[in-house]
Amino acid sequence: MKLEHKDISVVFSHTDIPDLFFTEYLASASGDFIKLYLYIAFLAKYNREIKIKDLSKSLNIPFKTIEEGLAYWENAGLITKKLNGYILNNLQEIELNKLYSPKLTLSSAELEKNEKNKYRAKAIENINNTFFQGIMSPSWYGDIAMWFKKYDFDEQVMNALFNYCFNKSALHRNYVQAVADAWAKNNIKTYADLEIYEEKNNHLNKIKSTIVKKLKLSRMLTQYEDSYIEKWTLEFKFNLDIIELALKKTTSKANPSFDYIDKLLSDWHDRNLKTVPEIESFLESFKNQNKNIKTLEKKSYSPNFEQRKYENFDKFYAN
User: Fold this and answer.
1) pLDDT, tens digit, 9 for 90 and up, residues 39-49
2) Where in the chain is the domain with CATH 1.10.10.10?
3) Rounded CA gap, 159 and 194, in Å?
4) Whole-angstrom Cα distance, residue 226 to residue 183?
5) What fold, for 19-89?
6) What residue ranges of the chain have pLDDT lower than 50?
7) Beta bridge partners of residue 87, listed in sequence order
8) What pLDDT, on the 0 to 100 scale, is given for residue 72?
9) Predicted local confidence at residue 102, as pLDDT
């Protein structure tokens, strides 16, 4: 796609001056120097050529002051001298370099920190070019730098964060912040951490999908049901085969609930049952115990016969 700029009259055109000029440079520069910078910014937009003596005449500023002004802005980094003139530098890029450029007088630890910041600056520019077509709002720079410091993400994780939000069509601050918080709570700092998290998340989503299918649910899982499944898989470390055993116990229930399934799985976890054979053996043993108890009940002549603790689980393992 080719984009063209339509020539319009100077009456309708305008010259953009970044706010950084007013917040960082205006107060310390003389009036003539400010006047000079604004005029050359105007001329640069049209790629115009002009001699210093012509600048002096156009601005009604002494020739020597023009030379001093050009030297001043060059020293400040706002313009760069070339063989045949000057080029205006990007103010946002200048400020970014100030934040991340290492100083040779720093200690080795500080130099190492600034070396990391150099890579982070490159990561921010990559995010700018990849997801914002090179025109990212300056406020994003501060936000990303803050997230680097707050979460200690490495450069690949930060890029992955923006890629994730971009693919979700939700590249706005609140959503990016929410995802970053979630990743941080899962102890993600490096790309290796992120890969482990994604693998775990994919496994969890597969289990959720299977449960929805097995229970023939025609709706999304609620937040509380999601929490139950995370408890079974992440806290109890039960695999899908064990969870399916619990699901099968719902076949005799008219309206099986996640609370019912959770009680089953929690009971197995409390009994330290970790495999399908162990659980099946327990269920068979429990079934036989109940048969023996019922036999004893029939033979007993005592009206005060105590059913013991097993009666609390009859409803779980009846089928």
Assistant:
1) 888 888 777 67
2) 19-89
3) 12
4) 18
5) Arc Repressor Mutant, subunit A (1.10.10)
6) 1-5, 102-106, 111, 301, 305, 307-311
7) 80
8) 93
9) 47
CA dihedral for 229, 230, 232, 238, sign (positive or negative): positive
Residue with tokens 């039960």: 238
The one-letter amino acid at 292: N
